[in-house]
Design brief:
Number of helices of chain A: 18
CATH class of the largest domain in chain A: Alpha Beta
CATH topology of the largest domain in chain A: Aldehyde Oxidoreductase, domain 4
Largest sheet of chain B: 5 strands, mixed
Oligomer: heterodimer
Order of helices and strands of chain B: EEHEEEHHHHHE
Distance between the termini of chain B: 73 Å
CATH class of the largest domain in chain B: Alpha Beta
Number of domains of chain A: 3
CATH architecture of the largest domain in chain B: Roll
Strand content of chain A: 15-25%
Structural class of chain B: alpha+beta
Helix content of chain A: 25-40%
Shape of chain A: globular
Number of helices of chain B: 6
Largest interface: A-B, 97 and 80 residues
Strand content of chain B: 5-15%
Number of strands of chain B: 6
CATH topology of the largest domain in chain B: Ubiquitin-like (UB roll)
CATH superfamily of the largest domain in chain B: Beta-grasp domain
Largest sheet of chain A: 7 strands, mixed
Strand order of the largest sheet of chain B: 2-1-5-3-4
Helix content of chain B: 25-40%
Chain lengths: ~750, ~180
């Protein structure tokens, strides 16, 4: 088999990591810690290999972004995290494009947060959330790559004593056509590294329409190790003498740990002990995680469940409903004209109230990380969406300054917003490790802990009211959202007078990010903050998810009241938003909206904007008389401005369908006696393959902005399907998930 | 002492007999390709074969496996030469990859039983959860693996750095009307 890019990258990465281990005294990589099977030692190198930028003997770091090897292969530094979304491959494509190196000889590595700190953030920020991995860094990454190319070419020109302008470069081979001479990146790298880099602002980047590697459906460079079980996730790490920790926080959020009786589990095989982690959490440590978990289940624990022990989904719903009806105190985000008067005087009034539940991220790899603490230094191996946030958490929890802390970034077994700003699992593991100086502590949460102590998608409701004139045109709309605020959980002091634009994401007036694509003559958009004791945070798509449902399902209710086709009803109020409209039209065309469907089939459509990209979707469903829903196919259009890898964009859109349909059909986390009730996948059902519709995608980039990809399409999946169900049954869907509304799924 | 035949190698292991096979593989043998996802046989990330039949190793005590031949992802093929792995590579199925050992084990078992499975066969056999949502490609890759096997009788076509026919259409300009 021909050597693919993915194969060469895997072997190159392993080789460079091994080299680093040899040179690193702090990481012992011996294998037979537990005196067990030889397979441990087979894997020891990879297990202990820390993810840091490294330069092996004979290799040259030309710039911070690129290391060139003597064989002309290039190691590209990737500052953002890879959690499945393909950012590693996309950034490598962008660098390759400007560097003019050979894609077949490209591999990647993560610079560590400690290295970034020591080098004054030469790689920029590391945060990988908000669909920003590529769109926020593409400019300086491409300039860094172009600067590297300019230096390599200049070094060749200097060697030949000819002007650099007479040289050309392709796939890492530099040619002076006039004299017929050639050289390669590997040969000039050392000389190039001694040159002064050009001013990034002076560099003219390629026109994306001329891209040869970027913009193309290149294979991912990190697939092969995911096919044979060889990719090491944080949960798979093993160190000699390591202790495994199983953890339990007070089931009621905000509750306290009063006491625990470690004597009851002390004699259990392999158990090292039970420890207090923080004021609300206890852990058991053992030689294996299974033993730690088994002992934790037998550990007598006394909790002070605190003031929220009686909270329930019913009390929370009552609070949110009050927010829908209150006459003062809410934040009016958009007030254009007089919506209340226009609706009161309208020929027809349409009104609907919607509700959406708390949702858990349910990353397939539960939360966890490994920490080793000594009074001089702290190290952590972390699956993190934000290496710098992990670094800060390690420093604060260990009490050691940043330059005495290091984070080794691990590829994530799913992120979806859970492992970014919130570094609770790093804080916990560090608190444990401080009690066992010098010992590696591997913390792994059980699925039940992961479900019970998430930062959930906030619960919310919306009351939507509209007025139609006698021609069926919208004259006014009032949108009242009531629910919990993410920003208020993260930083309550930053919230003044209930003002929180984030909770009305997708309804914004300002362009370029999450602009509402409709023009309604009289508009009032309000947010009534109703916080609970349940932690909330960003969940793939964040507030565009529920707001997209509210906007787009209500549009269909208005269209029906107006007696109009849902697509035509939307088009009439989108003339001021040509990009939104173009994407809606592209989805309709891909779906073949005007073509009659087979008997028993029904269709729905939706458009919404988030993360600086324009999304639209159409769905074809059937609903049996018994309420059994089958989603047959979906068509998507996305304008993300530019497309770095069309196949990976398609993969993200496909993934967004599964993520969103899980939420539409099945998923909710409810509250009973202050604690979360759905603690594993038997009760927190997720979509399975049989329920996945056929997904078709058309990408319609306009090449005039940079939008995100990982999140934007989630918010149109649900409403397109819900609107198709509405078309099938005549009954609008207003409360999620659908399983609570008497529907089942085929 | 529990005796286990794993990937053709017999191990005599000093483990608590009730320890689920998953944790013997991971904690005791360092075979980390088999993953923990839920612990209650719901997600399939821990799928291994018991005498060729896919089972969820998180919910089977090691002591109950002593008479079985166990196969893990490491035993399927370490060099990614199994037809299912090749098809997975061809279509870039994995995203985060965490569930993919289980998906691949389930798919390989299906193809062994039914060399040219229908969509319905795939629906019924593939009950593993993928949170990234790779299902469309899982389905396509199973069909591809079946097709490749029929077409080349074990001789696999070479893969290139990028697909000639990407699965998605890119319009050069926005469709307008």
């Amino acid at each position: 088999m021909k050597t693919t890019s993915s194969e060469s990258s895997v072997s190159a990465v392993n080789a460079s990591r091994r080299h680093f281990i040899v040179g690193s005294a702090s990481i012992a990589s011996g294998g037979l810690a537990l005196g067990l099977s030889a397979s441990w030692s087979d894997r020891a190198d990879a297990q202990a290999a820390p993810n840091v930028a490294s330069v092996a003997a004979g290799d040259t770091e030309v710039t911070a972004w690129v290391v060139v090897k003597p064989d002309d292969s290039c190691v590209i530094r990737i500052a953002r995290s890879e959690m499945g979304q393909g950012t590693r491959t996309g950034l490598a494509q962008l660098v390759t494009e400007e560097l003019e190196c050979d894609w077949a000889k490209v591999s990647t590595e993560y610079p560590s947060p400690g290295q970034s700190f020591a080098r004054k953030r030469v790689w920029g920020e590391m945060s990988t959330g908000g669909s920003r991995g590529i769109r926020i860094s593409e400019d300086y990454v491409r300039r860094g790559a172009a600067a590297t190319r300019i230096m390599l070419v200049q070094a060749a020109a200097d060697g030949w004593k000819v002007p650099a302008s007479e040289l050309s470069v392709s796939k890492g081979i530099i040619t002076h056509t006039a004299s017929g001479r050639t050289t390669s990146y590997g040969k000039v790298a050392m000389a190039a590294s001694k040159l002064t880099p050009p001013d990034p602002k002076s560099i003219t980047l390629k026109n994306p329409r001329d891209w040869k590697v970027a913009g193309k459906a290149m294979r991912r460079i990190d697939t092969k190790s995911k096919l044979n079980g060889s990719l090491i996730y944080a949960a798979d790490l093993h160190f000699p003498g390591m202790l495994c920790a199983a953890i339990k926080a007070c089931p009621v959020h905000g509750g306290k740990l009063v006491s625990f009786d470690g004597a009851k589990t002390a004699g259990m095989r392999g158990v090292k002990g039970a420890v207090r982690v923080n004021e609300g959490t206890v852990a058991v440590l053992a030689d294996t995680w299974w033993r730690a978990k088994t002992a934790l289940e037998k550990l007598p624990v006394v909790w002070d469940e605190g003031e929220y022990a009686k909270a329930s989904s019913a009390t929370i719903a009552a609070s949110l409903r009050a927010g829908l009806e209150e006459t003062g105190g809410q934040y009016a985000g958009r007030v254009e004209g007089d919506a209340l008067k226009a609706i009161a005087g309208a020929a027809k009034k349409v009104e609907a109230t919607y509700s959406t539940p708390f949702l858990a991220h349910a990353c397939m790899e539960p939360m966890g990380c490994t920490v080793r603490y000594t009074p001089e230094r702290a190290e952590a191996w972390v699956p993190t969406q934000n290496g710098e946030a992990s670094h800060t958490a390690l420093s604060e929890s260990s009490g050691l300054p940043l330059d005495k802390c290091e984070i080794y970034k691990m590829d994530l077994g799913g992120g979806f917003g859970r492992r970014g700003g919130q570094q609770d699992y790093v804080q916990q593991a560090t608190a444990i490790a401080k009690q066992f100086p010098g010992t590696h502590i591997k913390l792994l949460w059980s699925r039940e802990e992961d479900q019970g102590h998430d930062f959930y998608r906030p619960i919310s409701m919306a009351k939507m009211t509209a007025g139609l004139d006698d021609k069926g045109d919208l004259v006014g709309m009032q949108i009242r959202i009531s629910g919990q605020s993410i920003n208020a959980w993260v930083n309550p002091l930053a919230i003044k007078e209930g003002k929180d634009e984030r909770q009305v994401q997708g309804f914004w007036a300002q362009p370029h990010d999450a602009q509402w694509g409709y023009t309604v003559p009289n508009l009032r958009i309000e947010y009534a903050m109703r916080n609970t004791h349940v932690p909330v945070g960003p969940w793939r798509g964040v507030n565009t998810n529920q707001n997209g449902v509210y906007s787009e399902c209500f549009m269909d209710e208005c269209a029906k009241a107006a007696g109009k086709d849902p697509l035509e009803f939307r088009r009439a109020i989108m003339k001021n938003h040509p990009k939104h409209l173009a994407v809606l039209n592209a989805a309709a065309e891909k779906f073949d909206w005007n073509k009659p469907l087979a008997p028993g089939r029904h269709k729905g459509i939706a458009q919404f904007m988030g993360y600086a990209s324009y999304s639209a979707a159409a769905a074809e469903v059937s609903v049996s008389p018994k309420g059994e829903i089958k989603v047959h196919r979906m068509a998507f259009a996305l304008n993300s401005g530019h497309v770095v890898n069309p196949d990976q964009v398609a993969a993200q859109i496909e993934g967004s369908v599964a993520f969103a349909l899980s939420a539409m059909f099945y998923s909710e986390v409810t509250v009973e006696n202050g604690r979360m009730k759905e603690l594993n996948f038997d009760t927190y059902r997720l979509l399975k393959l049989a329920e996945m519709p056929k997904v078709e995608t058309v990408l319609v980039p306009t090449f005039d902005f940079w939008g995100g990809v990982g999140e934007p399409t989630i918010c149109v999946v649900g409403p397109a399907v819900l609107n198709a169900v509405f078309a099938a049954t005549g009954k609008p869907i207003r409360n999620l998930p659908l399983k609570n509304e008497g529907y089942t799924f085929a | 002492m529990v005796k286990l035949d794993i990937n053709g190698q017999v191990h005599a292991l000093d483990v608590d007999p009730e320890t689920p096979l998953l944790w013997v593989l991971r904690d005791k043998l360092g075979m980390m390709g088999t993953k923990y996802g839920c612990g209650i046989a719901q997600c399939g990330a821990c799928t291994v074969y018991m005498d060729g039949v896919p089972v969820r190793s998180c919910s089977i005590p090691a002591s109950a496996m002593q008479k079985a031949k166990i196969t893990t992802i490491e035993g399927l093929s370490a060099d990614v030469s199994h037809p299912v792995q090749k098809a997975w590579l061809e279509l870039d199925v994995p995203q985060c990859g965490y569930c993919q050992s289980g998906q691949i084990m389930a798919a390989a078992a299906l193809l062994k039983e039914k060399p040219t499975p229908t969509d319905k066969d795939i629906d019924e056999a593939m009950t593993n959860i993928c949170r990234c949502g790779t299902y469309q490609r899982v389905r396509a890759a199973i069909h591809l693996a079946a097709k490749m096997r029929v077409a080349s009788a074990g001789d696999w076509p070479q893969t290139d750095q990028h697909r000639d026919a990407p699965v998605v259409q890119v319009s050069s300009s926005v469709v307008t009307r």
